[in-house]
């Protein structure tokens, strides 16, 4: 992974995918009438 | 007794034909033990159980095979590669014998129901008279299409004729799938009755009775499961032919066939846990009592066996792929990763089948300080299992992806960035699945726990789809580093295919028993009570034994079908027997 040419795209893609998955979680939980954070 | 049976059946038929309005229908019969005939000392429940199960296995096989034969034939037409057409033809040849057996066992099932449960059969026939009639008609359509499809294969070759042949395949599949949907509505009516009042009086709306609460969840689950099952049985056939092959060419052909069958089985296996989860959630939604009986009550321990078998399916499917990497010397580059995939799969498998509550003696219970283990107990609840199964599916997808890369090198200039993006995709996705499983599973309430399983599934699906799309762009015009040599695969890989078929069969039997068994002492839940001497839930050991006997019987039939295909291609030279 530390090889030249891998690290930068990996980090950039990791941030992009993480944000996209977070948005996906929010959307799916909202569709079920729930928020992302649990409020007891 | 026989005249009484005939009277019952003919009464049902007359009621069915004469009924034109809601007023004509009677409530569900209230039975006593005397209403169940005893025939030749046969145990009614076990007889119907085994025959229905055999029919289901055979039907699953003969419904699934034409679906992927149709797909393979279409691929052959698109690629103009004759090998696909030959393989599709060989698949359909196997299902022809199985088709006759399905019809015979289906007939036997009707006889068993009429003989052993005449009042139940009469009641169901009253409600489902229309769909039963169309079922019979469709059976003729399916038979005609199947025979035309098989016997016309060589006749309808090339150009327009080939399109006609493919259309016949489409008709065959449409008829087969509709047959399954009709039969599904009868059994789901028994679990979640609709179109009847609380006394069981039919309102006259056949569609309402068919379109009951659990119909679609079962339809989806069975459709996907049948494809996976058909793939596994055909894979076993290819393994059998591979092991008995006498020359290299034949071995290469059946290796290729086994790989394709396994590919189809895995493809259908990946979404199957989600379809099963959806079905279970809908059972809970329909009746919480039924849902708790299913997974929190008497049947819960059968789910542990189910978990072991599903784990076996994943392990054997992965093992087959790893063995298959030996077909190309280029795969050596990826060998070092296999052990890590294996470690993750085994760890997920262990979480997947860890029970929540242990079966213990009083002394063991005291020593443990309760029914749950201090450290392993938390792994017994669904969020842990959902997380584990999603990880297992993703690592199976990784196995498949490295298998696909085994003999190739990507030549696009962005290959490093592409690989990094794929690794980041899996990393971010798996972390997301873990957070969803741990946070919502252990630090929130039940509503959140159940709700969080859906983004977990969505994450898995997104990862698989995006990774495969990225891969296909990355490997467009890829350079071959070492040829893929079909036939160069160890014999033990074929036993993984056998294991896949046997595990699927046993799993379907056990889970089918649970699905039916959660009705407990009801023929039709809350409507028609089972008053027979067998209206109790047998012990798990007894149930597992019945399913195991049925599995052995079915596997014997499968071996018989394989053997028939073997001898059909064998010619004996009878020197001096014939004149001239």
What does this structure look like?
The complex is a heterodimer of chains A (40) and B (580). With 40 residues, chain A is mostly helical. Chain A has one helix at 7-31. Chain A is elongated and about 45 Å long. The model of chain A has no long low-confidence stretch (mean pLDDT 89). Chain B is mainly α and 580 residues long. Chain B has a two-stranded antiparallel sheet with strand order 1-2. In chain B, strand 3 and strand 4 form a beta hairpin. Chain B is globular, with a radius of gyration of 26 Å. The model of chain B is unreliable at 1-11 and 13-22 (pLDDT under 50). The A-B interface holds A 1, 3, 5-7, 9-11, 13-14, 16-18, 21-22, 24-25, 28-29, 32, 34, 38, 40 and B 416-417, 419-421, 423-425, 427-429, 431-432, 436, 439-440, 443-445, 447-448, 451-452, 454-455, 458-459, 462.
What kind of assembly state do the chains in view correspond to? heterodimer
**What share of residues of chain B is helical?**
over 70%
Biggest interface between protein chains, with counts per chain? A-B, 23 and 28 residues
Give the strand line-up of the largest sheet of chain B.
Answer: 1-2
> Residue-averaged pLDDT of chain A, rounded?
89
Biggest beta-sheet profile of chain A? none
| Count of alpha and pi helical runs of chain A | 1
Largest sheet geometry of chain B: 2 strands, antiparallel
Task: Spell the H/E element sequence of chain B.
Answer: HHHHHHHHHHHHHHHEHHEHEEH
**Proportion of β residues of chain B?**
under 5%
Please tally the β strands of chain B and state the result. Answer: 4
The portion of residues forming beta strands of chain A comes to: under 5%
Question: What percent of the residues of chain A sit in helical stretches (DSSP H or I)?
Answer: 55-70%
Low-confidence stretches of chain B: 1-11, 13-22
State the end-to-end CA separation of chain B.
60 Å
